[in-house]
Structures are given as C-alpha cells and as structure tokens.
Design goal:
binds adenosine monophosphate, 25% strand, single chain, four-stranded mixed beta sheet, 12 helices
Length: 311
C-alpha cells in the first residue's frame, strides 16, 4: 500500500539570472521541488515556512497536487529569497543574494498527524534542525537528508550527529569530497558510510548519480537532454522522485532503491526543462512513464554482458 512522504525544507521565491534572461519571483525552495516531485507518486506532506507575501494561489497549487500543506507555517515577514546567476553553459552558478527572512527563525514543527510518516526527506537546512525533525517523527522506515558545503564546513559536529541518525544521505560529488576529505569518489563514499548512513547517493549533475550501500555501487545516468533551461532544484526533484517511488511501493530493499534511482533521475531531467518549478508542477504520470521508457532504452544493451560468452 502507498505510504506517505514527509518533506521538510525551504519554500522560496527565487530570482534567476539565466543566459536567456532574468526570471524574478519564481516559486522555488528545496521542499517545493521535492514535494511536487514526490506528489506524482504518493501522498506527500510538506513542512516549511512562508511569509505574508506568499500568495495563497501557490498554496492552492501545492494542494491541487495532493500535497498536504498543514505543516506549511505562515509567519510574519517575508518569504525566504534566493538569487542566483548561471554561467552561459549552465554548468555552474553564483549565489548573488540570500535573504533568509522568515526562514531565519524556522524551527520545523511536525504536525501530530504527520509524525507517523514512514518516509522522511529532510531538505538542506541546518543539521540541528534536521535532527529535530528526526527526533519528532515516530520510527520511520526511511529517513533521507540532503546537505551543502555551508553546513559541511560550518557545522561539522551537528552534521556528524545527523549522519548517525539517518538512513540515506543525498549529496553531490563536490560535497562528498569536502565531507569525506577524499578526492576519489569511491573512497569518499566508503568514508561517509563509515560515519553512519547505510546508503549514500552522490549526484553528478548531467553525469548521473551513484548509489553506495552494503551491496556495492550502482549507477544511474542522467537523461541526455538537448534543451536544458534551468538546473535549479534538479537535485531536490531527484530526491522527491526517489522518496515518492519508494513510498508508493513501500519498499526499502536494495533493488527498490536501484529502481527508484531511475525515477529520481527522470524527475531531475524534467525539472531542468523549465524555469523554476514550472515543469515539475505540470508533469503527468504519462510523462513520467514515457521518460522511464527512454531510460530503459538508454541502458538496454540487448543481451547478456558476459565476457566468457564472447570468448
Ligand atoms: P538546488 O538547485 O538543488 O540547490 O536547489 C535550489 C533551491 O534551493 C532554490 O529554489 C532555493 O530557493 C533553495 N535554496 C537556496 N539556498 C538555500 C539555503 N541556504 N537553504 C535552503 N534552501 C536554499
């Protein structure tokens, strides 16, 4: 039976400076991307904070996706704002401005009805707050967390505590190197797994993602797209798709995780096809099914991969 995903993290207005032009006041935030992605698969619950400037139409849009917004707090002040500028090749970006606003005092309060959520995704917030989330939920089946360089260098103790409490860490390769102190990705993964999480996903942008767990390493490609519009939130959509798939099938086995990675990569690939959350917000199950077919073709080598057979 389908299980619920709880998503905790930022809900934001982003100002995006893309090579194609400027896009101000775009609905964003890690939790927005993740919950929209997860909502394609299963019942999704959102915990975050917005200000008085957050349009009710945005809340309605999230609800129209079946997302339970009972944990979306409305505080006095302005919604979190982030401004970024992308390089012409979209491969790197610079943060131009971060205004925490109501997010500065955010203490995630998990509504009583959300505490039994079996699948929990802690978006990139202070690791102490991520720990508070873990402490508030009741024996979930899978707790996943994201983090970033800012916390890796600034809050190593809190992050170390968090790593001992989560099942799955989802980070990018640069973060994995900084966190582990190893340049080699496989060594970095082994070191991170020694620190607590049972599973680790290392995202490598348009080069796909690697899963490391007790069964070894597994690779999922990124879908090769001709038209990439905006990479913002791809990692968050990836994580939402992953958790949504696992919760839909209520399966945390190694094979389910490997299958879920294709859905995660599919959601990441859709995300970059539109500005902000626009593409993810318009997706249908048929779109997801089509992209999964494309993934199948991408990795189908039509036979047995067996050297002895060749000889
Ligand atoms: P990503 O592209 O996966 O890094 O996610 C982009 C989203 O993260 C944007 O929509 C931002 O609003 C949000 N974001 C940017 N900086 C932060 C931060 N310091 N804490 C939480 N969320 C952030």
């Amino acid at each position: 039976m389908k299980q619920e995903v709880l998503v905790v993290g930022s809900v934001a207005f982003d100002d995006l400076e893309m090579p194609t032009g400027s896009f101000p006041d775009v609905l964003g935030g890690a939790a927005t991307y993740s919950s929209l992605a997860a909502s394609l698969f299963t019942h999704t619950r959102l915990v975050g904070v917005v200000g008085t400037d957050f349009d009710e139409a945005n809340v309605k849009m999230l609800q129209a996706h079946g997302i339970d917004t009972a944990g979306l707090e409305r505080a006095n002040g302005r919604t979190f704002r982030w401004k970024g500028r992308y390089a012409p090749d979209l491969m790197s970006r610079t943060t131009l401005d971060t205004q925490l606003n109501v997010f500065a005092d955010f203490r995630p309060k998990i509504p009583a009805a959300f505490k039994s959520s079996p699948y929990v995704l802690c978006g990139n917030i202070h690791p102490r707050l991520q720990l508070e989330v873990v402490e508030q939920v009741e024996r979930p089946k899978l707790v996943a967390a994201d983090t970033m360089n800012f916390w890796i260098s600034g809050e190593p103790k809190a992050l170390a505590d968090l790593l001992r409490k989560i099942d799955l860490l989802i980070i990018n390769d640069e973060e994995a190197r900084e966190l582990s102190g190893h340049h080699n990705i496989a060594r970095a993964a082994a070191e991170i797994l020694r620190r607590g999480p049972k599973q680790l996903i290392i995202k490598r942008g348009d080069c796909g993602a690697l899963l490391f767990d007790s069964h070894g390493a597994f690779f999922v490609p990124a879908y090769p797209l001709e038209d990439v519009v905006d990479p913002t939130g791809a990692g968050d959509s990836f994580a939402g798709g992953l958790m949504g798939y696992l919760a839909r099938h209520d399966d945390t086995s190694a094979h389910a995780m490997r299958r879920a990675l294709f859905f995660a990569s599919a959601l990441g690939s859709f995300c970059v096809e539109g500005i902000g959350t626009t593409r993810v917000a318009k997706l249908t199950p048929a779109d997801v099914a089509r992209r999964i077919e494309q993934f199948r073709a991408l990795v189908d080598y039509g036979g047995k991969l067996d050297f002895a057979h060749e000889a």
